[in-house]
Amino acid sequence: MTTSNDKMIQIFDTSLRDGEQTIGVNFSIEQKIQIAKQLEKWGVDIIEAGFPVASPDDFKAVKAVAENVDHACVTGLARAKKADIDACVEATKNAKNKQIHVFIGTSPIHREYKLHMTKAENLAVIRKCVSYANQFFDKVQFSPEDATRTEPEYLVEAINVAIDAGATVINIADTVGYTNPIEFGRLFDYMRANVPRFDDVIFSVHCHDDLGMSVANAIAGVEHGASRIEGTVNGIGERAGNTALEEVAAAFMVRSDYYPYKTNINLKATKETADMISEFTRMPIPHNKAIIGQNAFSHESGIHQDGMLKNRNTYEILTPESVGMDATHIILGKLSGSHAVMQELQKMGYEVDREAMATIFPEFKRVADKQPIVNDHDLASIMKKIGVVANAK
Ligand code: KIV
Ligand code: ZN
After folding, report:
1. Atom of ligand 1 nearest to the CA of 143
2. Ligand 1 lined by 143 (C-beta under 6 Å)
3. For 78-99, how does the pLDDT look when each residue is reduced to its tens digit (9 = 90+)?
4. pTM score, whole prediction
């Protein structure tokens, strides 16, 4: 159970920006407005609506989201360049609540090969752009891109410069999903020890899923001092995607005995939010996806079904209803046990008991061995073959 002492963790959704960087995804402006409204209903604190300088449509979309969102903070992304910042200023000018997100690569590989900058040049650009953005926004988020592959001593230097120039949020980007929870935690401990104004700003985490650790890394960041998590719905995003926000929110709820954190996410609206993203990205939710996959609350093996029928806590740590999914499903297949088959037959109106199952169950197994699942229609055929007719329900 969450308590009033739990620390509030801000949820920053970048489905409309990093999420739109998913191969094959291109939201229309209308879709962006619809998604932003749904994100607000879901309870996210900050919506990254796009990258205004990237294209005229991206600019229009950020502007439209800024004008259609009621209370969530709206942000646009800007490289550390005046033109990008100016585009963000213009695109978000009508937002009731806004911030800017300025980023630049800080790792050796980014400095040397992408930016062709020395450390001194890199620091000068950070100082100049963050202070420029600070003239227009009360809330300025600075992201050292590829922070987890940046020399920790230099990362701290860059962060200190950004804070001195007016950054109010420092977003530690694991741009290529390279870190792991223990290492990320240590990086936060190092920053806390070496950033004198660590507690004066919000530390945020932005993790990618290249090694499948983005949710764990983001949570490790929070355990070591971050109070904002960036991510996307369904974990969409560049390459292997971003931290799946529904997984973070559910983890904090289910393991509230362990995590002293809460979010503003209304978990019951998770499924409808996930479905909208899935529809607009044309990316079906994998069946085995945590929290919202159709198998997340389905049980096929006999041992699990028997446990579930006795007490659902045996094999479910959260209820489907708590995340807006319809119900638990007992799926019949070759691994199912007689208890589950009997219960399904009773639901269909057959008066069957354990004795009758001695005849029915071998026939069920014979059918189940030959097909992936056995549905009600198949069960009715089995009963007909055996010569049993259902009572009208
Ligand atoms: O992955 C990344 O580094 C980003 C930045 C813009 C924060 O998306
Ligand atoms: Zn990213």
Report:
1. 7
2. yes
3. 999 999 999 999 999 999 999 9
4. 0.95
Distance CA 102, CA 89 (A): 12
The response to whether residue 84 sits with its C-beta less than 6 Å from ligand 1 reads: no
**Nearest to 141, CA basis, from 223, 71, 228:** 228
Q: What's the rounded Cα separation, in Å, for the pair 29 and 20?
A: 12
Q: Which residue has a Cα nearest atom 6 of ligand 1?
A: 103
Tell me what percent of the residues of the chain surpass a pLDDT of 90: 96
Residues 6+ apart with CB under 8 A from 377: none
Q: Is residue 348 within 8 Å of 325, Cβ to Cβ?
A: no
Residue ranges of domains in the chain, CATH in brackets = 7-281 (3.20.20.70), 297-393 (no CATH)
The C-alpha atoms of residue 42 and residue 35 are separated, in whole angstroms, by 10
Give 238's strand partners: none
At 2 the pLDDT is 67
Rounded to 5 degrees, φ, ψ at 60 are -60, -40
Q: Which residue stretches of the chain are H helix?
A: 29-42, 56-68, 82-91, 108-109, 119-134, 152-164, 181-194, 214-223, 245-254, 270-281, 302-310, 338-347, 354-368, 376-386
Ligand number nearest to the C-alpha of 143: 1
Ligand nearest to the backbone CA of 145: 1
In terms of Cβ atoms closer than 10 Å to its own Cβ (0-12, 13-18, 19+), residue 211 is: middle
Planar angle of CA 55, 58, 59, nearest 5 degrees: 90
pLDDT for residue 391 is more than 80: no
Position 11 pLDDT exceeds 90? yes
Is the pLDDT score of 178 beyond 60? yes
Separation of CA 241 and ligand 2 centre (Å): 8
Pocket test for ligand 1, best of 14, 51, 143, 239 (most atoms within 8 A of CB): 143
For a pocket test of ligand 1, which of 15, 175, 232 has the largest count of ligand atoms closer than 8 A to its C-beta?
175
The CB of 103 under 6 Å from ligand 1? The reply is: yes
Q: Is 141 in the pocket of ligand 1 (CB under 6 A)?
A: no
Does residue 147's CB lie within 6 angstroms of at least one atom of ligand 1?
no
